[in-house]
């Protein structure tokens, strides 16, 4: 899968960007050359849509990013659809967990009431904006459009102001909840990372990146948590998910392969038949007959 953060960061001559401490601001036209693709980021990010639209699929749900919208996207994998004849331009800021945690700790003195934590939030949080928020976004856009490179101190201050205006907006309760939970945990849960991303064809190193762990630490903790290997666990989870899609949707086998994270169709067919004794196509044809009752008994 393509790490969109690395893709942008390491091509500064093509994609306009500013870097400040651990923050990366990018103003770019989406380079995606096919309608549908799977990508990931090991940093969460804020995305403001300047023009065009796209659709993001994560964990069985979908979100539309349209002109003028602002979203907070949690790190991890997702499927992205763009309209190639329309184009898509965005201002995006990638933010490491450690930076967010430090920032929230410094902001909490301004919060009213007890911080809300440990409540589930969606992987993509659609944010409410007002004139103040829009003003800060426009300031950042002006830096790019006028080719004025701000100092790191100015850039960070503008970002802090933008985030603060979002946090004090009562309509952005979900963002406050998530950032408080992130800040109060010493490290992200490996179980949560895997449950949210098993359906994407990520390498073990990429899973470790998302979980903020070294590859060795990831493997060691995985074995302790699941008492099996990552490869075995991922195949089982992907098979379970593919089985649900075969039973409950009319998606093509090719789409199910893509959506459930298998490397290719032949690999999927082989492990599916090894597990259930039927090819995916044969299983689907008989899913309402006695074969399904035998498989699910």
TrEMBL record:
Domain of life where this protein originates: Bacteria
Matching InterPro entries: ExsA-like_N, Homeodomain-like_sf, HTH_AraC, Tscrpt_reg_AraC-type_HTH
Record-linked PROSITE patterns: HTH_ARAC_FAMILY_2 (PS01124)
Alphabetical list of Pfam families matching this protein: ExsA_N (PF22200), HTH_18 (PF12833)
Stretches assigned to the HTH araC/xylS-type domain: 188-286
Sample GO molecular function, one term: sequence-specific DNA binding
Presence of the UniProt keyword Translocase in the record: no
Keyword terms: DNA-binding, Transcription, Transcription regulation
Name recorded for this polypeptide: Helix-turn-helix domain-containing protein
């Amino acid at each position: 899968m393509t790490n969109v953060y690395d893709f942008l960061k390491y091509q500064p001559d093509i994609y306009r960007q500013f870097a400040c401490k651990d923050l990366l601001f990018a103003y770019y036209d989406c380079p995606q050359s096919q309608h549908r693709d799977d990508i990931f980021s090991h940093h969460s990010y804020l995305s403001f849509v300047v023009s065009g639209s796209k659709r993001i699929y994560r964990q069985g749900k979908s979100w539309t990013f349209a002109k003028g919208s602002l979203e907070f996207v949690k790190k991890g994998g997702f499927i992205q659809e763009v309209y190639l004849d329309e184009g898509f331009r965005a201002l995006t800021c990638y933010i490491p967990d450690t930076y967010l945690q430090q920032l929230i700790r410094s902001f909490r003195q301004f919060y009213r009431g007890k911080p809300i934590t440990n409540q589930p939030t969606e992987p993509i949080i659609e944010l409410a904006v007002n004139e103040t928020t829009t003003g800060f976004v426009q300031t950042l856009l002006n830096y790019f459009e006028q080719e004025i490179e701000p100092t790191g101190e100015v850039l960070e201050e503008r970002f802090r102001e933008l985030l603060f205006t979002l946090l004090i907006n009562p309509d952005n309760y979900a963002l406050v909840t998530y950032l408080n939970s992130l800040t109060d945990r010493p490290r992200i849960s490996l179980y949560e990372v895997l449950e949210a991303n098993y359906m994407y064809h990520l390498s073990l190193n990429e899973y470790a990146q998302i979980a903020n762990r070294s590859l060795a630490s990831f493997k060691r903790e995985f074995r302790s948590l699941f008492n099996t290997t990552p490869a075995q666990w991922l195949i089982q989870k992907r098979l379970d998910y593919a089985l649900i899609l075969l039973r409950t949707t009319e998606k093509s086998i090719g789409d199910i392969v893509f959506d459930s994270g298998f490397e290719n169709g032949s690999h999927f067919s082989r492990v599916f038949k090894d597990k259930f004794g039927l090819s995916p196509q044969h299983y689907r044809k008989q899913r309402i007959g006695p074969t399904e009752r035998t498989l699910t008994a």
